[in-house]
Specification:
A five-stranded parallel beta sheet has the order 3-2-1-4-5. It starts with 5 loop residues before the first helix and ends with a helix. It folds into three domains: 134 residues, HUPs (Rossmann fold, 3-Layer(aba) Sandwich); 100 residues, Serine Threonine Protein Phosphatase 5, Tetratricopeptide repeat (Alpha Horseshoe); 147 residues, DNA Cyclobutane Dipyrimidine Photolyase, subunit A, domain 3, CATH 1.10.579. The longest helix has 19 residues. It has 21 helices and five strands. The protein is α/β, with parallel strands linked by helices and 442 residues long.
Amino acid sequence: MKSYNLQAAQQIIDEQTTIHWFRRDLRIQDNAALYYALKENKKVLPVFIFDTVILEALDDWADKRVVFIHQSLLHLQEQLEEFGTSLLVVHTDPVQFYKSVRPQAVYTNHDYESYALTRDAAVKKILEAKGVHFNTYKDQVIFEKSEVQKDNEEPYTVFTPYSKKWKAKLNAFFLKSYPTEKYFKNFKACKSIALPSLKDIGFKDVDAIFPERVIKTSIIEKYDKQRDFPAIRGTSRLSIHLRFGTVSIRKLAQVAKKKNEVWLNELIWRDFYAMILFHFPHVEARSFRPAYDHIEWRNDPEEFEKWCDGQTGYPIVDAGMRELNATGFMHNRVRMIVASFLTKHLLIDWRWGEAYFAKKLLDYDLASNNGGWQWAAGSGCDAAPYFRVFNPALQTQKFDPKMEYIKKWVPEVGTENYPKPIVDHVFARDRVLSSYRKALNK
């Protein structure tokens, strides 16, 4: 693929220019790395790199997440122009980008995924060879890596004691916002640099309605009572903004601490799974608990396709999958139901489901997605016990009793046009328990 704005970057970036490298932090307020870049330097140039290594791995050239990023960058550009500077958006391999420029310093925020760690190590090596400092900071979580540990300095692998230690450690310091606005005068003065279009980077624009970048306290206050009912607006829908950093985790934690402890727990789960990924990187490809890698999955491709398409004959499962396919969003309760159904009812490897969610979810985050799927499969660090098999009918009775959510996404339910169940629940439960026992007995 052709690189865009690389030549412009080479002309603009000199040895007096400091780069702030935007990644999962697409905002200028309360941004850790941007704060330190502006506080410690003058002539700070904001840069975003459309990473060709990541983009070329995507299957869908109309991927809504790329559209969301592009829209967020346009918003950033408008804000930055008010301060007499510009966002430089480049489309290239980040390693090649940093080989081609020599700034005064580079500032960015931590990323904990294996590709990001490898990329950042390569970038750091290139910059250090040029005598350029590569500075990174914690920004997308409240506590990272080894900040919340057991008393013996080992990482937690069970959520409840982790969350108790997390809350005990939390104080005003960790919730305090970074006052970036104090140093906006230190942006590099330059004319607006045109962003590459979606077409320029090989993607298509699509009509997509993204959740507002608004913290609705009225929803958060009722979250513990309404969060499990997919037919109502009982969740914040801020997950995509958390994923790409268009809102600050510290701001959300401030609100959560005041308004609803159950919603605060959801933010703690994010930190927990990010910590697990950091300490146990093998979870990207294998079960956290090695015994679960002995499970003999059926992996029937036709049944998997029916699950993907929302044609299993189980209405709550099909509604969830159709919502995901249409919108890129799925209610959290329904995520648990569809994941349990795939792994337990169909005996299909959790990695298949994880990969499908990775393609479709607007808020896809490796650590949380992996953690959620391994929880459902029973193979994770703090998982549902393997013998817990969600009954879709009972889940419907509890959480969508009037079938309002189901009828929205599966209007043909109850008619001859709706498929019969792909598998009998009782049979599937007996089969999966037998398969799991056999694997774990090894």
